[in-house]
UniProtKB/TrEMBL annotation:
This is diguanylate cyclase. The lineage of its organism: Bacteria, Pseudomonadati, Pseudomonadota, Betaproteobacteria, Neisseriales. Residues 394-523 form the GGDEF domain. The keyword Protein biosynthesis does not apply. It catalyses: 2 GTP = 3',3'-c-di-GMP + 2 diphosphate.
Amino acid sequence: MTLRQKILLLGLVAVSGMFLALWLQYKAYLTQSQAIEAVVRNVSAVVALSHAAHELQRERGMTAINHSKTNAQALAEQVRHTDAALAGIRGDIASLGMALTQLRTEAATGRITPLAILDSYSKLLQRLADEMDRLTSEPEAAVAKTDMVAHTHLMAVKENLGQIRATLGYWTEHKSDDSVVLNRLFRLKSLQEEELRKFGLDASPELRERLAQEFSGLEVAQTLETLAQIAAAGKLPQTLDVQAWWSMATVAVDRLKVVEDYSLELIEKKAELELTQLRSSMRLGVIITLGIGLAVVIMAISATVALLRALDRALGSMELIAASQDFQIRIPADTPDEIGRISRSFNQLLDIAERLLKEKDYLATTDPLTGVNNRLRFAKVLGDEAERKRRTNTPMALVMFDVDHFKRINDTYGHNVGDEVLKALANLVSTEVRVTDFFGRWGGEEFVLLLRDDDCEAAMAAAEKLRNLIASSDIPSVGKVTCSFGVAAWMLGDTEASLVARADKALYESKKGGRNLVTCTQGVTGNCHGRVRCAQ
Ligand SMILES: Nc1nc2c(ncn2[C@@H]2O[C@H](COP(=O)(O)OP(=O)(O)OP(=O)(O)O)[C@@H](O)[C@H]2O)c(=O)[nH]1
């Protein structure tokens, strides 16, 4: 897998990860918002149930005291209210209507005792309370959990007070079953007080304050006072008027209903607020996740493109250097990033490589003593030139010269001075040769000069010029030094070796002829005079 493919795969994984994170975030939001929506739904169902319970509580109370004709009409009116409230509730609990109709019929026939009727009403109300409990405790992850619990206690307070209202109402009407009524009242009173205490623990300060506000006033005080007196005296008040009791107890129950409605309103508001906050935080979360994800993707793409481009450029230059062996090429290193650093470091390596190659080339092609071209380099250039001459058939000549009696110089002045003489001679000749000529040391005290475009006669003239220059020059430490020259011109069918051999032979002839001479062995006659000889 290439680096490009790996980066592409990494990008795909990163983008998939971003979408996965978004999906998980959305799923969590969905679960949470569904739970809150369920609370909102349940609260509106509880509102209807609470309304129905309130009407049913009132009907129970009125049924308990319904022995005077004056109440019959009011009870009939209340029955209509109860039925209307029950019509507003849905689900299984709606079947409660049938049980209620049956109860009303039984109550009308007078076959069951008023206390049993009261209990039957309370059982129906318990079903409503159970349903409200179920709705307020669902779902588990819902918001306003404590508010719901407080609400449940408040409902219980109201239900107990409703039962107290009905029980005492029954007694004021019938004045019988004292001990049963008293027991009931004590039990209900302590239940109510217990539920009120629990409500105080769970309710929000706002709701507690509302209860304090609403559950007060003359009627509420009178109701509570009546109950307190019964508890203190341990007997029922003989003077309590049924209508007076009904009125004040109903005000107290109605006040609790106001608080109950307010509690549900608060819960609903809280849930709706939570939902709104959840939605806006979800929107913000999605925007932030997408924003960050997008920024990361853009940055990753631009960084990757820049990286791959820089790598391509560096790779292209490296491949070109490897293919061309041209160590003068440099990689573009204009960026301040890591790629730029790598390129600059690579360029530094190229600098070193170039320098080492130059040094190697110099050492391989240069004579270390005299600094002129060595035999290897000379042979290479001669080979190249010979190749060219074979194609162009143009003139070329080789001059070979050797220091005369060099052994004597060494022997007389020492080897070091001999070296200095060779250096001085090489230097002298180097300054004299033309740019087209190629000069080198053949070995020992022997030098060669390639005259690229000269024929034999021109080469002999050049050799004579050099001979004269050397002979007339003062060489440090030793004074005058002479050299013997052999000249050979390129001929058709020549090889490098045959040309060198002829120049060497001519040089030998110069030595044999007395030294400090220029000799050509190719039958040239025109310029052969003085120290220039044309040997056969
Ligand atoms: N100092 C020094 N001497 C060298 C070098 N190379 C060769 N020689 C000496 O050059 C001398 C060449 O001697 P010969 O071949 O007898 O030639 P010659 O004395 O010049 O005599 P002819 O060539 O006949 O004139 C030898 O003594 C070599 O040791 C060098 O690099 N430095």
